[in-house]
Amino acid sequence: MADTNRTDFLIGVDLGGTKILSGVFTNSLECIGTAKVSTKSQRGIDAVVTRIDRCVRDAVDEADLSMKQVAGVGIGAPGAVDFNAGTVIFAPNLEGWKDVPLKKDLEKQLGVPVFVENDANIAILGVQVAELKSKPKNVVGIFVGTGIGGGLIINGEPFSGFNHTAGEIGHMVLEVNGPKCGCGNKGCFEALASRTAIFQQIKAGIKDGEKTLLTEMLGDGLEDLRSGDLRKAIRRGDKFVARIVESAAEYIGIGVSNLINVIGPDVVVLGGGVMEALADEMMPTIIKTAKDHAMPGTMKGVEIIPSKLGDSAGITGGAVLARRESKSKSS
Amino acid sequence: MADTNRTDFLIGVDLGGTKILSGVFTNSLECIGTAKVSTKSQRGIDAVVTRIDRCVRDAVDEADLSMKQVAGVGIGAPGAVDFNAGTVIFAPNLEGWKDVPLKKDLEKQLGVPVFVENDANIAILGVQVAELKSKPKNVVGIFVGTGIGGGLIINGEPFSGFNHTAGEIGHMVLEVNGPKCGCGNKGCFEALASRTAIFQQIKAGIKDGEKTLLTEMLGDGLEDLRSGDLRKAIRRGDKFVARIVESAAEYIGIGVSNLINVIGPDVVVLGGGVMEALADEMMPTIIKTAKDHAMPGTMKGVEIIPSKLGDSAGITGGAVLARRESKSKSS
Fold first, then answer.
1. Three-state secondary-structure class, residue A114
2. Closest CB to B265 among A162, A261, A265
3. pLDDT category, A331, cuts 50, 70, 90?
4. SS3 of A294, please?
5. By three-state DSSP, how is residue B25 classified?
6. B163–chain A Cβ distance below 8 A for any pair
7. How far apart are CA A116 and CA A85, in angstroms?
8. Residues 188..227 of B with a Cβ closer than 8 Å to A: which?
9. Which chain A residues in 66-105 lie under 8 Å from chain B, judged by CB atoms?
10. Hey, is the C-beta of A259 within 8 angstroms of any chain B C-beta?
């Protein structure tokens, strides 16, 4: 087993507001072990760093390896990240995270090189390299979940802009007098088309007397409503849920065309929990609406596709980052 | 006068839907002669190319030079441009312009190297190099005139994306059910805040019985209404015009914050005829609205400034392009 002594295994970590995912990858980006722990950011920054450390070691153990065989760790954090400094500048969904030297702290605990990027940028990097085989030069990633996040690949590289905040597409205003967003403004993309927005519209509709299979499936309070339940209800003929999901898909289509008009990417990739559950239902409307709204000439040859990586986009992108950076260090 | 025999003078050309501007520049980007002719695109592509040729020669004559002393011509065209091929892929405001080999055709007429770029990209290149001294790496240019155009500098270079159409910010939807745009959609940025949109709102208001000094100044039909007239009316206390201009400034502020959220530039530059006439009136509202709408952290240290180059941004950028490309050819 000479091979397993080589230090060319890579770890990708997806640090989220509620959970931490980690995955061990071979140099050819095959995933050979994963682990998951809850984030518990209310316990403080040090506790979260220790939980990341544990999650990484759990995945390594799962893959029957030791940390000595790991070349590097790439981690995506949910906020503004200074890649060169290895710090998380701020992360609204992690309590108290401001200027956290995550690279330094984790390297001390893990004893291997650590590279930190924004979570959406790392996810789109994973999609670009592992799924699209690095062919497109300019890629926009739209991740529709609790909120809506965006990741940009420009000229083949993750792009994060001046304050490391590029890709905050969830707060692009699409409807000046639209519904209130968590950020305090009105009509943001994520106030119109995120899972949170879709669920609010469903609950408001039920209050107004709309009939839906969801209350049969889950009870009147819609406890534990998940994106997958929407798919089930639509497939069983629920017109009310279909209409709300259709409306969200139209807004996503407008968001896509705005981004195509402004950035002019080769490919737009849609990911995140909502897309994973509802791609079949939403993609035709997203593509049609984007085509209706994009300027002539801007859409020619541009692909609008759902990612197949699903929840693994983040950990895959982490491994891609770790592979690239470990290589550039050793060469 | 040995100096004037050197072939290091540069020409910038701004090809617009209604007029062609040209300027002769020294190597240090001082403008020493300009010329202007109408475009008359209804006469056909060849006629326009001949008019560009004449406009360039007029400016050279104005500067007491000959074409032999010109190192190169940089020209901005109003549409999608393939810089490497030197072709205008399409230009909605120039009749019949589709895949026009402008570089080749003009080089044949002028006998000097010609470089073609999108007009908004060339204008923001002019601002970036001549006005901002190439300091910012990522710049978004917003040009508010008859329509709203955008130019992007990414990592120090003009960025035009996959179909050479990046920066079509005028058709970014800001209000899904907003006023109809010339492009057929509703609520586009330029349907809310361009000169065309402002003038339409003023004319509609007058029809509805609003009182304004503009009818005193220009007659009931508002013949020859120009952006400068709005400034005059506001300064003389016209509340109706002030309100409409204020509303346009708010939409521009939302457009600015969308672009900051998505792209994360170091600097946002506002130019074009409307900004040239009304920067003092509009900038405070634009900046305030942008700050209110941008996500926390995205605005830190980001400058939002009006360009001082005004109408000269395009010809200056053309000279910058010609200087850079002539250098890279001769080195």
1. strand
2. A162
3. very low
4. coil
5. strand
6. yes
7. 9
8. none
9. 80, 89-90, 92
10. yes
Asked if B309 is an interface residue toward chain A (Cβ–Cβ < 8 A), one would say no
Interface contact flag, B172 A295, Cβ < 8 Å: no
> Could you tell me which chain B residue has the CA closest to the CA of A176?
B175
CB–CB contact B251 A159 (8 Å): no
Alpha-carbon distances, residue A282 vs A66, A95, A270, B269 (angstroms):
43, 34, 11, 37
What is the model's pLDDT at position B90? 87
A213-222 per-position pLDDT tens digit: 999 999 988 8
The owner of tokens 């309070």 is A221
Contact B268, B260 (CB under 8 A): yes
Spatial neighbors of B68 by CB under 8 A, at least 6 apart, are B7
Confidence of residue A88 (pLDDT cuts 50, 70, 90): very high
Q: Does A261 sit within 8 Å of B162, measured CB to CB?
A: no
- pLDDT tens profile A90-118: 888 899 999 999 999 999 999 999 999 99
Q: Report whether B123 contacts B313 (CB < 8 A).
A: yes
- CB of A175 within 8 Å of a chain B CB? The answer is yes
Alpha helices in chain A (DSSP H): 45-62, 102-110, 119-126, 189-193, 195-207, 213-218, 227-235, 239-263, 273-293, 313-330
- Which of chain A's residues have a Cβ under 8 Å away from the Cβ of B297? 80, 89-90, 163, 165
Question: What is the pLDDT averaged over residues A276-282?
Answer: 96
| A299: contact with B, CB 8 A cutoff | yes
Decide: helix, strand or coil at residue B36.
strand
The Cα–Cα gap between B304 and A162 comes to 13
Question: Phi/psi at A193 (nearest 5 deg)?
Answer: -140, 5
CB-based contact A161 B300, cutoff 8 Å: no
pLDDT tens digits, residue range A189-241? 999 999 999 999 999 999 999 999 999 999 988 888 999 999 999 999 999 99
Q: Which pTM does this prediction carry?
A: 0.92
Neighbouring C-beta atoms of residue A310, cutoff 10 Å: 15
CB of B180 within 8 Å of any CB in chain A?
Answer: no
Spans of chain B below 70 pLDDT = 1-6, 329-331
- Give the residue among A263, A301, A291 at the shortest CA–CA distance from B89: A301
What pLDDT is attached to residue A328?
A: 72
CB pair distance less than 8 Å for A263 and B262: yes
Alpha carbons A105 and A49: distance in angstroms, whole number = 7
Cβ proximity of B316 and B126 under 8 Å: yes
Q: How many angstroms separate the CA atoms of B266 and B300, rounded?
A: 9
What is the per-residue DSSP string for B93-146? TSTT-EEE-HHHHHHHHH-S-EEEEEHHHHHHHHIIIIISTT--SSEEEEEESS
Write down the ipTM of this complex.
0.91
Beta-carbon pairs below 8 A across chains A and B: 148
